[in-house]
Amino acid sequence: MESAKITDSLYRNENASREELRFLIENRNAESAERLFERAREAARRHYGNKVYVRGLIEMTNYCRNDCYYCGIRRSNGAAQRYRLTKEDIMHCCEEGYRLGFRTFVLQGGEDSFYTDDIMVDIIGAIRGKYPDCAITLSLGEKSAESYRRFFDAGANRYLLRHETATPEHYAKLHPAELSLANRIECLRVLKEIGYQVGCGSMIGSPYQTLDNIVEDLIFIKSFGPQMVGMGPFIPHHDTPFAREKAGTAELTLFLLAIVRLMNPKVLLPATTALGTIEDNGRELGMLAGCNVVMPNLSPISVRKKYMLYDNKISTGDEAAEARASLERRMEKIGYRVVSERGDYAD
Fold first, then answer.
1. 133: helix, strand or coil
2. How many CA within 13 A on the CB side of residue 339?
3. Torsion of CA 213, 219, 220, 224, to 10 degrees
4. What number of CA atoms fall less than 13 Å from residue 83's CA on the CB side?
5. How far apart, in whole angstroms, are the C-alpha atoms of residue 9 and residue 218?
6. Rounded CA gap, 82 and 64, in Å?
7. How does pLDDT run across 282-311, given as a tens digit for each residue?
8. In the Cβ-directed half-sphere of 254, how many Cα atoms lie within 13 Å?
9. pLDDT per residue as tens digits for the range 201-240
10. Is the full-model pTM beyond 0.85?
């Protein structure tokens, strides 16, 4: 087996065997990575040109009922400074974002029971009524099929729910017993059935992750057929059980992003905040590895540092939505163009 042959086959056939994926990842080097990135850029440009879509991220609450071992806003973290945004706060974020040229709003938060279905339907309906030309993405964790349906009927278009790992045994090492991979995958299936554009994704370099786990993730993503994939490096948080674990690397993350692009050429693929945190020019490197989405922060400045999923998360400077002009310049330097479009999946 040769890495170059596998990469070219991936580009042509949009698929690879477990053995090929394993070989490609295990034997990666600077030369094989560059070939992979080149093919990934070609695949992305074939469907999206040199466009970079921006999503305005609104982190609406850092209360969470879950106790995931890697997450800084986990239920057990008594040191977290908790907050919730009001409907008025969220509408103000959307107003500012719309003025800046954002046409997708992402409402993200911990699994917070304060926001009942009625409250969420009211918020989603208000955004949909005021900004009919915008996409509304939700990233609010595991809900019932009825809740997902109500949010969709109120005007939400997309839902991000990272599966984190596609191996049940690995999932159990990252989460408390009350959370299961089976339920998470069932949620993803229900979301797709309802009609959402759905995003899944995993953490690269998470504790206990093996090469087989990574290959399983790639196979799962291909078989599920999401419209979006959120994939970023694991970064530890000092107030979690994984405080002393090693962070994932930008190098492996970028390599896997490129493979995801080749296996799913039309997917909307963000260069994540975590990638921008672990590497100064992480966003640019993400684009050069096949990404086509960035998600600057529209949250009120007063709460940005409180939504701390992992240590040193960027929340000001180029991460901040106000710095859109800077983001545009950075992307133009590498041949990409930030656009004010919803950026829907290329059917």
1. coil
2. 14
3. 170
4. 18
5. 16
6. 10
7. 999 999 999 999 998 899 888 888 787 766
8. 27
9. 999 999 999 999 999 999 999 999 999 999 999 999 999 9
10. yes
